[in-house]
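Course assignment 3, question 2. Fill in each field.
Student: A.L.
Task: Predict the tertiary structure for the chain below.
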Amino acid sequence: MRTQPTTPTPGELRERILDAAEECLIELGYNTRLHAVIAERAGLSRPTLYKHVGDQSAILEALFQREISRFFVVLDPVLRGRQSQLQVRFVDAVVFAVQYARGHRLLQKGLRDDPEVVLPWFTVKAKPMIELGAQLLTPHFERLFSPEELSGVSPTAISEWAFRIIGSLIITEGIVDTSDERALREFVRSLLSVAFMPQPDPTIP
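Answer field:
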């Protein structure tokens, strides 16, 4: 007895569309008219694309939000690492984030070939990403900080500060070679030495 093929759920269709969009952007660039090529690659009609994701701007926004959500999934073990000192763990997280971005094909494609499309998501259009980052990072900071430390600073503000540091290191060139992990780590440590975090106790491993 032949089984009938199952109808994809709206969530499955959306993921299928975004997977095809990611492939098209990496292959063809951000200025490609996406709907026609995505529809062909995903085996869907253009009206289906509009229904489940929207226009080209909405597709790009959905991709960015999906990628940053995926990033926080892989960042979670770093924030939950064995290192007991908050400052060291924070440095680890920033270094991890910057190096993750350097190896991210979709992001690097945009920064290299179509920066006018990608850069606004780190600048004038950054608010949704900052809000999502704060939503995902705040529980970690609430766990990592003591009640006394939290009395003087907002976890949401710390999350936004972290996003701004990471974003600037990803999109702007400076005196620090971000491909050099040791140099990057020392630079982030120097930033924290003038910020809200105390210096680590050298007697604590």
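Instructor remarks: The chain has eleven helices and no strands. The two ends are 64 Å apart (CA to CA).
Grade: pending
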